[in-house]
3-hydroxy-D-aspartate aldolase (Microbacterium azadirachtae), 422 residues
Amino acid sequence: MQDKSFPPSAHGRTREQFLATEPALSDFATPLLTLDAGAMVHNVARMADWAQEAGVLLAPHGKTTMAPALWRQLLDDRPLGAGAWGLTLATPWQAQVARAHGVRRILIANEVVDPIGLRWMADELAAHEDVELLSWADGVDVVHAMEAALSGGAPRPLRVLVELGGAGGRTGVRDRVAARAIAEAIAASPFLELAGVGGYEGALAHDAGDAAIARVDAYLADLADLHRELADAGLYPEGLRPVVTAGGSAYFDRVGAVLPPLCPDADVVVRSGAFQIHDDGFYAGISPMGRTIGDAPFRSAMHVWARVLSRPEPGLALLDCGRRDASFDEGLPVAQRIAGRADEEDVLAGSHVSALNDQHLFLRLGDEAVASGAAARLQVGDVVRLGLSHPCTALDKWRLIPVVADADAPDPVVVDAVETVF
């Protein structure tokens, strides 16, 4: 009953018992977020193939889904999984969730100065010899804060990467002189170990134009130069293979092109997180998969299905989907099809979503569809499939998400249900 839009027939049953009834999409209430099993398999395989060809390792960002079952798909060996090197997360709490589900190598792509989180990391390393935890530092003050939290002792040093940023970006040290000082402070600490360099190029560019790509490439070259400077200075522990990491979901192709040739003595780790789910908005427009890499783009695995509540004007439909159900920070949803109907193409032609309230979506129907009378065929009670943008802010609104075999089927069959832990 606490799982949004699951039918009363699921109440009191285990997940396995409910799925054994072979429910279909039409058995669920609306609004409903679904994941497409076939699209996720396709996306994971495409990314794993690319990583192997590019000579990089994958540590997908788990914050995108916060779904341990989906993390397992990334970590499992091929051919069923991506064979990922590890998992990236953003906070110590997220790392705790991952550890509770057996993830052994975790890169916290962030500064960790919370003493509670740092003590947990130290205790986890003490209790499990096969666990590896890495985090970032972008200032000597960060290093000092970490040391203060660990002053009670750490049986194994925490592995820390120097984070390189850029002007106008997010976190990350802004110049190489300061970066060298951070590395020296880490190397001198009895509680820390210099493990490499990292950063996020996605904060420095927001499109796929030539100028944006040039900024990304220049940043990645600076990251490689910093790694070589630290290696030449002997700041890495003897015998350690450093990590050089970058790569969100927009420019991972540039990471694969620039870093491996410049960092042959390091593990180049790509942290893309959105590829598993992908979208019909921001990432569909900027992802290099299918644009610069091969001819088979990622496929969106997430959709919201929403029901028409009201047709107060010929060109307007109000649907039962709002800001509590769908992402809207990187673009509004897009109406794609009418469930169980074959005439949706002319009904929805020219339509767009103009606004989301807490519980309502405003679907504006196209002028031609209204003039021809096609728009009138969208009736109260019809269910519309919506394409979404930005999986990070879509999945966090759902605790239990049905997985369908094929979202393009007339009435998709639900084959699984994925729990999120946000």
About this structure: The two ends are 19 Å apart (CA to CA). The chain has a mean pLDDT of 96. The domain at 86-271 is CATH 3.20.20.10 (TIM Barrel).
